[in-house]
Design goal:
The protein has 472 residues and is of the alpha+beta class. Helix content is 34%, strand content 22%. It folds into two domains: 61 residues, no CATH class; 325 residues, tRNA-splicing ligase RtcB, CATH 3.90.1860.10. The structure holds one DNA strand of 6 nucleotides. This is 3'-phosphate/5'-hydroxy nucleic acid ligase.
Amino acid sequence: MNAHQLKGKDLLKIGYAPGKAVGTALALMETAFKEISKEEQLILLSKVLCSPSKYQEDELWAPLAEALLPPKQEVVTPLLPGAKDYVIYGAEGIEAGALKQMDVAMRLSVTVGGALMPDAHQGYGLPIGGVLATQNAVIPYAVGVDIGCRMSMSLYAIPPDILTTQPAQLKKLLLDNTRFGTATFKNPQDHAIMERNEFADIAVAKGLKDRAFRQLGSSGGGNHFVEFGTVELHDPENEFSLPTGNYLAVLSHSGSRGLGASIAGHYTKVAMESCRLPQEARHLAWLDLNTEAGQEYWLAMNLAGDYASTCHHQIHQRLAAALGERPLAVVENHHNFAWKEKDAAGNEVIVHRKGATPAGQGVLGIIPGSMATPGFIVRGKGEANSLNSASHGAGRVMSRTKAKQTLSLPQVQQYLLDAGVEVIGSGLDEAPMAYKDIRQVMQSQQDLVEVVGTFTPKLVRMCGDEKYMEKD
DNA sequence: ATGTGC
């Protein structure tokens, strides 16, 4: 327009390289800095040229900064042409989508082994019920969104007929001492977990600490539950040194609440930015354990796991106090986690279990059925083909959506009545009919675990609509 | 799974 108009040539003089940045800079000056002098414009532009990374987050300057910075590495790490071998337990009951996802996971360059449990179904990245061993890499989505999600069971010396003689009292205990959905305890019980260094040392965890404290001891939603039932101990050689017979039991299933979910979300994003994979594998992006991000995730994952465990301990402590008893025995296990373990050759591998129960030789775990079917205290057999794992439940036979569409409330209520189970909260999507037959699932994993005791649920609490419940 | 949403 006039002699004072900034030209591309002026930019080349101050060191701009011919290319996209020049055009971006000129357009920016034209739209946002029209009124200042050419000299002033050049001063601004040379500042951005000197340190573009400083302007990456700036709303106005970001496009220019991006154009000046070296192009992001978009190198895609290819998948192996064929999937490594893995054993599928209960293959006849596993949906195609889960198998397909497992096949993709078995083609990652970092994968050294895997197995699919009989309750497997499609998830994000690795299927639920998938076990994956990698070399020096951790995959946030192979751990799962609910990091450290776990089972915990307490056995009591109380005669289990209390379930039929005092159902109202037990129901009150559950309502008073557990919190579901968005409800939390008005005065959360403080715990040493909140003093962990990770909350101070890891930037992401720091921002999650306050909410984590508010949610301490709560159960969340989805398939999480706290329930009373009966355990029949079958094995006279049980690890609890208890006589065989029937015991009152409390069983809880929940995870790391918003803490783990946010950690999972954050590090998955970090992984997907640094580890580009073909479209069908993108959610399996990993973090190298030798990198800062990898080590940070490992620490954050362990924090979330310990937090999940603390929540269970508080749930069980509250109920124990309300019952006025101390438990005779406690069994507990994570099923969404990654561990450093040794493979058959003695090499250290990272074993991801996403909805799979650790089942090393002699390791105790809990595999529940559904709200109205039996669950099992199991002892691992240490089967190498399953990577020392077993299922974490019965697995769905119906998606949540399908369950809500096809099941009716009276139908589910009748089923529960017949089973002698009372349920507080929950929705049709958690109905027993939405789950596989747990007996069949247990049959498929006879090589993986042996049954120590059988749990029969009686009074179940799950997430309903208890936003109104805030009392302590 | 999730302050159930960029």
